[in-house]
Amino acid sequence: MRRVVISLLVAALGVTSACAYTVNGTAVSEQVLDIDPPFTSEQQVPSTEPSEPEGDPGTGTVGDICALVGWGDLPYEVPDKKAEPTETGYDTTFDQSCKWQTSVGDLDVGVTLRFREGRAITLEQSNGEFEVEGRTVTYFDRTTDTSVQPSCVLVMDYAGGGIGIIVIDGSARFGAICDQGKKVAEVLLANEPTG
């Protein structure tokens, strides 16, 4: 009986040592919640206003676009739904840009907006479109694209210019990513500046 127990222990040690291995390397730094936006701005939107950035975000003719959306409009669980965006003005190639970023477990999720006055924003590549309040929203669903974080990129004409929405969410806890983007578009259109 003792031989059977010893044989079993030796076999168990052999199996566990065969499964053990060492991983070399360094810790991965926190990912930036963003992907390279596949936007272009070749189409001119008729406007009497200048299309160049006016300086600080929110100082152009349409006001602060980033103030039109808030945490309360997003499905993410955060301690303060009235908090400011995580970051604003981070993409200087646009007139306005802002980001709402939070963590779900080990994943960062959130939404980024980019606005350009006087010029439409188009997508270099798209795989669909839908109508929101009579406005065409073009999107590029990158949920299964392994070269980027699971995301959906959406664009539409907005406030005499163009707006790009990127939703990044690999958690699969808040519904389809492009549906999240559609809800952001609905909020923006409900609050669209006029004149």
Brief summary:
Helices cover 16% and strands 27% of the residues. With 195 residues, the protein is an alpha+beta fold. It has a seven-stranded antiparallel β-sheet with strand order 2-3-4-9-8-7-6, with helices on one face. A two-stranded antiparallel sheet has the order 1-5.
Verbal overview:
The chain has 195 residues and is of the alpha+beta class. 16% of the residues lie in helices and 27% in strands. The protein has two helices and nine strands, in the order H-E-E-E-E-E-E-E-E-E-H. It has helices spanning 2-19, 177-190, and strands at 39-40, 87-88, 96-104, 107-116, 122-123, 128-132, 135-141, 151-158, 161-168. The strands form two sheets. It has a seven-stranded antiparallel β-sheet with strand order 2-3-4-9-8-7-6, with helices on one face. Strand 2 (87-88) and strand 3 form a beta hairpin. The longest helix has 18 residues, at 2-19. The protein is globular and about 45 Å long. The protein starts with a helix and ends in a 5-residue tail after the last helix.
